[in-house]
C-alpha cells in the first residue's frame, strides 16, 4: 500500500523484536502454567520458522485462549501487520480464541468484515474464516490497542493448521512459476536476472513481446510493471501473475499486444522482505518505496537495479516508455483502484485518467471513484511519483492498489471477498485494457478481431470520445 503507515497505532508491544531477524516462534509448545512432563494433545504447538512466516510470541491465557504477537519487520519495529503461522498437536473438537494483540495500525479492513485465511494438511486450499467468528476492537487489557480476535474449532487431530493475514505468495512460489514459464521456451518471453537482493535472492525481469521488437533499430513502445515492493502485500503477486498469464497466452488480444508493445515486468521488487515474512520493509528495515530518488546499490540493490534500467531505457531515443505501473495491496479500502500524479497541464491530467477509466469498464472490481491523483510530499520517494517526474509527458505512472479483502460490484449490496483467482482476474483485465487504450489512440492496425471490439470508450470527462481527442493522439501511431 502506498499510503503512510498510521502512527497512532505504533504503541503496541515490541515482543519478539529483541532478535527480529530470527524472532519467529519455532515449534513452540504452549502448555498451562506449572505443567511439567511431555505435552498432551491439545497443548498447541506454534511455528512460524518457514518462508514468509511471522509470529513472534504466544501468551497462554487459558486452555481455550491465546494472545499472539506479530514479529516486527526485520530492523524496523514500527511495522507489525503480516502474520503467517502453523498450529499442530490439536485435540479434535478443541475450540480456541486467538487474539492478535500488537498490530501497528489502527485502521483495518477487519473492522469491515475481513477475516484471516486458513488451510490444513488435509484441506490445502486457503479459505477465509467466517466473518462472524472474527472481532476487531480496542482492548483495555492491551493498552487500548486494537486487537483482532478470531474463534476456531480444530476438527482433525492429525492435521497441521496454517493461518495467515491474507493468501501468501512466497518467493519460492514465484521461482517455481517463473521456472515453469521458462521451460515452455516461448519465443516471445525472456527471463533475466536483473540483479540480486542483499541476501542474494534473484531479482527477476521478464520481457514479453514479439521478438521482432528487440531489433536494435526499431522504435519500441514499452510498458513497465513492478510488484511486491511491500512484501506483506501478497495480493499484488496474484494480480501480477494474472497480467503475465494473459500476456503469454494465445488469446487474440495478447497476440496483438505482443505485436505492438514490449512488456517489462519485475514481479518481486523485495524478495528478501517476502522471504522473511515482513509486512513493509526489506531485510535492513527500509521501506523501499520511499527510496526511488536515490537508491543505494548496497542497501537497496533491487530498487537500484530497476531504477538504472528504467533511466537507461528512457535515455534511448528509440524507446518510448508509455506506462509504469507499480502493484500494491490496500489494508483499509475495498476494490481495485489507482493513484496517479498531479500535473499543471490540464490536458495531461485528462489523458492520465483515460487508462483507469478504461480499466473500470473491463474489471467489475475496479473503482474509478476510488482512484485519486495526488502529489503529497511524503510520496515523493515512491516509484509513481519519482518516475512521473522523470519521464516525459507522454508517459503515465500509476500505483495500482487492490483490497486485501473484497470488492463491491455495480448494484451489489454486500462486498464480495477476493480469492486468489479473482485477484488474478484483475491482472488479466489490466492486461486487456492496454489494447483498449491503444485502440482508442489509433496505435494499432486494423487487424483487431471483431469479437474483441469493445463499446466506444469513455473520454476523461465522461463523454464518448470525440474526433478532437483521438486526433490529438494520432501522431503517436506505431512505426512498423
Which features does this protein show?
disordered N terminus; 480 residues; elongated; eight-stranded mixed β-sheet; alpha+beta; 24% strand; 22% helix
Structural features, described:
The strands form four sheets. An eight-stranded mixed sheet has the order 12-13-15-14-16-19-17-18, sandwiched between helices. It is elongated. It contains ten helices and 21 strands. A hairpin with a 2-residue loop joins strand 7 (117-120) and strand 8 (123-128). The chain is of the alpha+beta class and 480 residues long.
Describe the sheet with the most strands: 8 strands, mixed
Please give the radius of gyration in angstroms. 23 Å
Low-confidence stretches: 3-21, 446-480
What distance lies between the first and last C-alpha atoms, to the nearest angstrom? 39 Å
Our estimate of the beta-strand percent is: 15-25%
Spatial strand arrangement across the major sheet? 12-13-15-14-16-19-17-18
Helix content: 10-25%
Count every helix, treating DSSP H or I runs of 4 or more residues as helices.
10
Average pLDDT confidence is 87
What is the SS-derived class?
A: alpha+beta
Amino acid at each position: 500500500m502506498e499510503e503512510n503507515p498510521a502512527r497512532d497505532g505504533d504503541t503496541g508491544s515490541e515482543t519478539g523484536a529483541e532478535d527480529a531477524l530470527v524472532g519467529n516462534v519455532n515449534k513452540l509448545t504452549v502448555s498451562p502454567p506449572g505443567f511439567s512432563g511431555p505435552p498432551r494433545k491439545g497443548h498447541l504447538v506454534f511455528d512460524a520458522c518457514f518462508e514468509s512466516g511471522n509470529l513472534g510470541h504466544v501468551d497462554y491465557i487459558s486452555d481455550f485462549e491465546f494472545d499472539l504477537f506479530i514479529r516486527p519487520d526485520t530492523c524496523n519495529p514500527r511495522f507489525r501487520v503480516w502474520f503467517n503461522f502453523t498450529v499442530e498437536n490439536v485435540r479434535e473438537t478443541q475450540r480456541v480464541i486467538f487474539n492478535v494483540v500488537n498490530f501497528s495500525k489502527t485502521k483495518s479492513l477487519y473492522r469491515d468484515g475481513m477475516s484471516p485465511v486458513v488451510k490444513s494438511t488435509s484441506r490445502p486450499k486457503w479459505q477465509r474464516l467466517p466473518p462472524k467468528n472474527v472481532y476487531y476492537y480496542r482492548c483495555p487489557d492491551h493498552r487500548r490497542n486494537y486487537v483482532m480476535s478470531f474463534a476456531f474449532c480444530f476438527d482433525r487431530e492429525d492435521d497441521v493448521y496454517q493461518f495467515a493475514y491474507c493468501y501468501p505468495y512466497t518467493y519460492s512460489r514465484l521461482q517455481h512459476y517463473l521456472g515453469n514459464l521458462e521451460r515452455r521456451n516461448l519465443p516471445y518471453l525472456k527471463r533475466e536476472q536483473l540483479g540480486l537482493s542483499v541476501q542474494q535472492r534473484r531479482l527477476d525481469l521478464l520481457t514479453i513481446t514479439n521478438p521482432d521488437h528487440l531489433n536494435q533499430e526499431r522504435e519500441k513502445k514499452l510498458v513497465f510493471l513492478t510488484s511486491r515492493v511491500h512484501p506483506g502485500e501478497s495480493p499484488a503477486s496474484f494480480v501480477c501473475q494474472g497480467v503475465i498469464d494473459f500476456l503469454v497466452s494465445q488469446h487474440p488480444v495478447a497476440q496483438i499486444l505482443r505485436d505492438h508493445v514490449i512488456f517489462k515486468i519485475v514481479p518481486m521488487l523485495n524478495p528478501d522482505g517476502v522471504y522473511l515474512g515482513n509486512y513493509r520493509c526489506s531485510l535492513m528495515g527500509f521501506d523501499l518505496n520511499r527510496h526511488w530518488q536515490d537508491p543505494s546499490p548496497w542497501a537497496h540493490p533491487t530498487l537500484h537495479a530497476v531504477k538504472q534500467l528504467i533511466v537507461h531505457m528512457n535515455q534511448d531515443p528509440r524507446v518510448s516508455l508509455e506506462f509504469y505501473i507499480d502493484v500494491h495491496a490496500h489494508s483499509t479500502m475495498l476494490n481495485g483502484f489507482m493513484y496517479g500524479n498531479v500535473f499543471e497541464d490540464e490536458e495531461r491530467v485528462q489523458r492520465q485518467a483515460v487508462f483507469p477509466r478504461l480499466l473500470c469498464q473491463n474489471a467489475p472490481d475496479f473503482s474509478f471513484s476510488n482512484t485519486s491523483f495526488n502529489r503529497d510530499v511524503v510520496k515523493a520517494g515512491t516509484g509513481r511519483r519519482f518516475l512521473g517526474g522523470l519521464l516525459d509527458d507522454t508517459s503515465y505512472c500509476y500505483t495500482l492498489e487492490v483490497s486485501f479483502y473484497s470488492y463491491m460490484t455495480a448494484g451489489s449490496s454486500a462486498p464480495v471477498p477476493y480469492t486468489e483467482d479473482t485477484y488474478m482476474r484483475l491482472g488479466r483485465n489490466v492486461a486487456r485494457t492496454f489494447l483498449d487504450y491503444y485502440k482508442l489512440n489509433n496505435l494499432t492496425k486494423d487487424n483487431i478481431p471483431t469479437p474483441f471490439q469493445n463499446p466506444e470508450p469513455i473520454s476523461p470527462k465522461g463523454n464518448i470520445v470525440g474526433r478532437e481527442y483521438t486526433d490529438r493522439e494520432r501522431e503517436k501511431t506505431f512505426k512498423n
